[in-house]
Amino acid sequence: MLTLYNYQPSLNGWKVRVLLGLLGTPYRNREVALFQGESRTQAFLRLNPVGAVPVLELEEGRTIAESSAILTYLAQGTRFLPEERYLHAKIVQWLSFEQYYIEPTIGSLRFWTLTGRLDLNAGRMIESRRENAARALAALEHTLSDASFLVGERLTIADIAVYAYTHRAEECGFSFESHTALSAWLERVATEIGPHYPVPPYTADAMLA
Q1: For 2-79+197-206, CATH number?
Q2: Hey, how many other C-beta atoms are within 10 angstroms of the C-beta on 193?
């Protein structure tokens, strides 16, 4: 059986849990105590030398780190990852977009906001990340103005990946009010995913004292 090394409040881990659930793939969840230093132990670094979650351990013991790589592995040969060459490349494009424009901006701002760290990162860093996040949301609005999903006509891992942090953007001060196409896409993706994948709040040990 697959083992997912995970931290429940992590939206990178959430992406993987959603896809595993939609595929009906059984797995063991192994919670990692990130804020107690478990991801920096030698045992965990053998799974992922970067010391980050999620990590997927295969049945024979090999591991895959980074949420985009895990999604791609799991989705291979399923409806969530088209085989056609152009569509496959577009999936990779949006996975890269999410990791470059969404996770480092909305993901960081949300984490800092919800765990009391925002004031520690005040100034140009906050301003820059907010500007880049706004650009990313504008790019999504433009793309989705004439498309139901990011690639093709149905849900793919591109939608799951981009949706993860994007749908929580209001938690760090962004508004979808002027993004009507993006808002409609968020509703479509939420409907496709279903109600069984809540996003847990950060644990007490993540909060800045």
Answers
A1: 3.40.30.10
A2: 18
